[in-house]
Amino acid sequence: MRKKLTNVNRATLILASASPRRAELLRAAGYKFRVQPSPLAEPERCPSRVPIPLWPAALAYFKARTVARLVADPSAIVLGADTIVVLDGRILNKPRDQRHAAQMLRRLSGRRHAVITGLALIRGTEETIATATSICRVRKLTATDIRSYLKSGLWRGKAGAYGIQDRHDPFVTLVSGEWSNVVGLPMELLKGQLTALISRL
Q1: Which residue from 18, 28, 72, 163 has the fewest beta carbons nearer than 10 Å?
Q2: What is the mean pLDDT of residues 27-41?
C-alpha cells in the first residue's frame, strides 16, 4: 500500500467537502490533499424515484463533478462523499436545530440503524462511484443523556445528530462495517477505489 499511496500523493487530490472529519481521516491515513468544497446545494430530501441506498452515491458524484468542472488541472483527482443515516427506511439528515436533534436521538434510542456513505472519484474522463454501509446501535438513552449531549453541541452538522467518534458519551456501537464510514469516509473503500483508478491511468 505504501507504493500505491505514494503514487496517489504524486497526483493532486482534492476533497470536495468542507467536513473536518473527512479531512482528519485523510490526514491520519497519510494522504496529501487540498480542500475545495462543492458549491452544490444539498437537497433536503431524497426523490421518491431514487432508491435510498443510491442517494448518497448520487450526491457524492454531483459534488465531485461540480468541483471537477472548476479545477484547471485535468490530472487532479476529485473526491466527493456524502453520508446518510437510515432508520426504518427513512433518512435522518443533519438536524436543523437542537429540537430536531433531540427528536432524532429519541428515535435512534435503543435501535439499530444503517449508515451509508457514497464515494465518487473523478479524474478527467475517469469516474468511479461506490457505497459503503455500516450498521450501528444506539443504547437506550435517558432524557438526561439526550440533554447532556445536546448541551455539548456535538450534534451540529452531523447526519443522525451524533458522531461515533465523539468522546462526550460513546453511546453508539459499531455492529458491522467500517468505523470510518460512520465518521464520514470509508477509508478501506477509498483505498481500493484510488488504487483501481491509479492503475488504469
Answers
A1: 72
A2: 92
CATH hierarchy code of domain 2-199: 3.90.950.10
Check whether 56 has a pLDDT greater than 80.
yes
pLDDT exceeds cutoff 70 at 1: no
What's the rounded Cα separation, in Å, for the pair 101 and 24?
24
How many Å apart are CA 123 and CA 99, to the nearest integer? 41
Residue 135 confidence class, pLDDT cut points 50, 70, 90:
very high
> Does residue 82 have an active-site annotation?
yes
Question: Which of 63, 86, 47 has the alpha carbon at shortest distance from 14?
Answer: 63
DSSP structure class, residue 178: -
Query: Out of 82, 97, 145, 169, which one is annotated catalytic?
Result: 82
Q: What rounded mean pLDDT belongs to the chain?
A: 90
C-alpha 147: how far from chain center: 26
- Give the C-alpha distances (Å, rounded to integers) separating 101 from 9, 109, 157, 159, 168: 38, 12, 10, 10, 16
Alpha-helical regions (H) of 48-165? 55-68, 98-108, 143-152
